[in-house]
Amino acid sequence: MTVITEADLIESVADALQFISYYHPMDYIRALGVAYEAEKSPAAKDAIAQILTNSRMCAEGHRPICQDTGIVTIFVKWGQDCRLDSTRSLQEVIDEGVRKAYLNPENKLRASILADPAFTRRNTKDNTPSVMHVEMVPGNTVSIDVAAKGGGSENKSKFKMMNPSDSIVDWVLEMIPQMGAGWCPPGMLGIGIGGTAEKSMILAKQSLMGAIDMAQLKERGPRNDIEALRIEIYDKVNALGIGAQGLGGLSTILDVKIFDWPTHAASKPVAMIPNCAATRHAHFVLDGSGPVYLEAPKLEEWPDVNWTPDKAAIRVDLDTLTPEVVQTWKHGDRLLLNGKMLTGRDAAHKRIADMLARGEELPVDFRGRVIYYVGPVDPVGDEVVGPAGPTTATRMDKFTRMMLDQGLLAMVGKAERGGDATKAIAEAKSAYLMAVGGAAYLVARAIKGSKVVGFEDLGMEAIYEFEVADFPVTVAVDSAGENVHQLAPLVWREKIAREGLLAPA
């Protein structure tokens, strides 16, 4: 019987989680490099360039690809001839590995897991517990897949209990535009079909552990109905023209993975979960001989892409910004922000709303300011701030009018804004600016100073004041309410159909 020691399992999980925090899977990087070369949309090409540049920087610096270092999901296939040498449960041992990874002082990862989710939502401070799935299988080894799933993409998960005759393709094409860009495309779609409601969701998540192989699949042709379905969904989703970061373009997804399971005659449960531009997963096998350490990829395997600011980008002085300047910006404009910028996200906005309702004075004056929706990673070494990419702006939609009433001039986040928020932005003659999700380390290099100015107890959700230099953004909603996330995909959908353009594979 193979003995798996507690120490070996903890060390292997911790190493894998650190590894995936700064190394993309190389199949993703290769596919994204192909998408970059083929992309015709300047805005999407710029976004992909930022993601690729950020990826190489993280690989070199061993810092997180994304500031949202995710909720940990573990798939364990435990050989029946193996024994865990521990007095603790498997969940407890694996969570000790998660704890060790996320508290590593050389690359501390952001703790995003909240206990008591319906009420007090208290941060566990070490990103535990993980979500674990265990299967007992024949054999004398333990096979483990680890993944770290960001909230932006996980929140876009979809499920439907279909009728047996319903079209899966039609449902996917209905859901993708509703998902918007908060899941940070281009990425992958994982689809689970069959079983029960919960089984289909697990299948969808598990399918995302596979390597990107759409190019090989299309080259040899499908060998079964599932492979044919993968190709059909891939082509039709990319034909929607949503593109990188929702800015319009050829590549919205790089692959589609599908797992299925037998189901009840009256049922057809279907789940869909996207993987974002910060795709993070790895696989290792324990055989009782010691811990497993993953082999680092070679830096020369990254595409030769080095993002630099667009020469046509408009430099903006945040310290002298006026409403009149904001009103000159048009949707799609590239800006480089310089000066002092406030931050704030979910918890800060909720506390501001509560304080205003009680008639209390806010700790920060928002008049004439710009706010950045971000929860940064803690800095290490001589860093001013850790990776600090944008969080999904739509979660702040319900607070937008309230913040604009405080004199806010503009907001920075990722993905689209909803109808009510867009209307409020237009009525206030303000603007919403979009930073690239999946470029957190690159973006952090533009932050030259950082200090907490409000709600320090909220940790990464406190209000910071950042000093920024040439911080890159795109005007996503201008002062007239023109919304690039609505307009650009429509343009590219028509262009793709008219010119017969196809996403690369």
UniProtKB/TrEMBL annotation:
For this UniProt entry, which segments traverse the membrane?
none
Q: Which residues form the Fe-S hydro-lyase tartrate dehydratase alpha-type catalytic domain?
A: 11-284
Q: Mind listing the GO molecular function terms for this protein?
A: 4 iron, 4 sulfur cluster binding; fumarate hydratase activity; metal ion binding
Claim: Iron is one of the keywords in the record: yes
What GO biological process terms does the UniProt entry carry, in alphabetical order? generation of precursor metabolites and energy
Which cofactors does this gene product need?
[4Fe-4S] cluster
What this protein catalyses is: (S)-malate = fumarate + H2O
Q: Which UniProt keywords apply?
A: 4Fe-4S, Iron, Iron-sulfur, Lyase, Metal-binding
Ranges for domain Fe-S hydro-lyase tartrate dehydratase beta-type catalytic: 288-486
Entry's Pfam families? Fumerase, Fumerase_C
UniProt-listed InterPro entries? Fe-S_hydro-lyase_TtdA-typ_cat, Fe-S_hydro-lyase_TtdB-typ_cat, Fe-S_hydroAse_TtdB_cat_sf, Fe_dep_fumarate_hydratase
E.C. designation(s): 4.2.1.2
Q: Which domain of life is it from?
A: Bacteria
**What broad class of enzyme is this?**
lyase
Say what the protein does: Catalyzes the reversible hydration of fumarate to (S)-malate.
Q: Which family does it belong to?
A: Belongs to the class-I fumarase family.
The record's subunit annotation is: Homodimer.
Write down what this protein is called: Fumarate hydratase class I
Organism field: Sphingomonas aerolata
